[in-house]
Amino acid sequence: MPSYKYKLLIYSLIVVFGLSACSPFRPAPRDGVTMGLPLSYTLYSSEPQEFGKWWESFGSAELNRMVEEALTADFDVRIAWAKLRQLRASAIKSGAAKYPTLDGFGKYTGSKTGSDGTEGTKGSTSTDKHELGLTASYEIDVWGKIEAKANSGELDFLVSREDVSSAAMTVASEVVSRWLEIQTQRQKKAILFQQLETNTIYQDLVELRFRNSLANALDVYQQRENVARVKALIPPVESRERILLNELALLLGRPAGTVEILTTDFPALDPVPGLGLPFDLLANRPDVRSAGLKLQSSDWAVAAARADRLPSFNLTGNAALTSAQIANIFSGWMVGLAASIAGPIFDGGYRAAEVDRTRAVVDERLLNYKRTVYIAYKEVQDSLIKETWQQEYITARKNQLDAAKTNLNEAGSRYLQGLEEYLPVLSALLSVQSLEINIVEDESNLLLYRVSLYRALGGNWTDSLTSADELSETSVKADAEIKTVSTK
């Protein structure tokens, strides 16, 4: 009879394990999700090219060093790495349920009974029991619930890795943008000092003509106001430069006021890189990849919620050594095996509501995924449009500046000949000086639009990133190896 029970148990386990291989709630792949993207970009559509660390195309070794430093020292990047480690541990925890658990235990039970002699006996008796053993338990994943939770946790971990890539791309573009904006402020400041010198010369000229009764007091006052105007423009530029340096220091993980950079001209702008197809954004943008992974994770969460409504099967086994005396603990043993099944009968609709909730999460993340793809496509298109028309705008501005300088020369010549009042000269001078400042800002904006384009296109250069902690561990190991070699 006992053998029959063991055979029945074995056959039941075979059936259960066979069912567990089916995973009836496994989600269907979403490879066919249609994004509705156009086949090509409106502007500059060409074959894709890997531009890698795009900031190196600006030709500044100082900028390259700052970006590399920020990729390991920036607080947002380091926080993203810390979250990644958390999700890595959570993924391991989610997958641990796929394996049996084995626990050790030790137990001691002592009791003492006695009699006062009213029943014919008097005395006490002591009973001791020592037990030492192992307990193993395993939940058979019949419906794929454990697998679904493990896969969902693994996908959440991959989402966190994409968040690291997103943070790194953001930091790289922010460092380059701050560097360009600082160079912009310094160029503006240099132009303002040149204008101040020019306006001072004009002021001396007008005052000299006033002393010689060739100009009136209004001309002097107007030019003095122009000198004061240029002087008033310098402090905000210097203030903005210092603020940008402080922002750059924060991106580098340093205190404010501890970063200084060299002054240089604007870098030459390379031709627009190959963009490939809009659909390539699905593989090149970390935020798009992250949204897709979140969608897959929610699909597995639905599978886990559906499987949780069905019974669960558990195996429990234990083996123990037992004895009344600790010295004889190895003289007795006990082995046990148990199988159990448990399933929900009434839970007030809790599990059904959880299925509905997870399905609603899938709908939300599907829409979020599509929105993220559309935003990525829009950002690329916007950057292309801005850069294209900005180049035409700069060309038109420079033509306007040439015309304004011609106007200034003619107005100055006529003023010196006494043919015109000073007002046309002042108006032409203001126009030239305003255009000089504006063109610097326009050229800076052109470079910033290119930074936005690189950021919008994404890339795979973040795949090789290493956290600051891992880098420090590597450097410590390298130093130890160097010391070992040197001692030999």
UniProtKB/TrEMBL annotation:
Its main location: membrane. Keywords: Lipoprotein, Membrane, Palmitate, Transmembrane, Transmembrane beta strand. It is found in: Cell membrane. Belongs to the outer membrane factor (OMF) (TC 1.B.17) family. It is a lipid-anchor. InterPro entries: MdtP/NodT-like, OMP_efflux. It holds the Pfam family OEP. One of its GO terms (molecular function) is efflux transmembrane transporter activity. Coiled coil: none annotated. The lineage of its organism: Bacteria, Pseudomonadati, Thermodesulfobacteriota, Desulfovibrionia, Desulfovibrionales. It comes from the Bacteria. GO terms for cellular component: plasma membrane. SUPFAM superfamilies: Outer membrane efflux proteins (OEP). This is Efflux transporter, outer membrane factor (OMF) lipoprotein, NodT family.
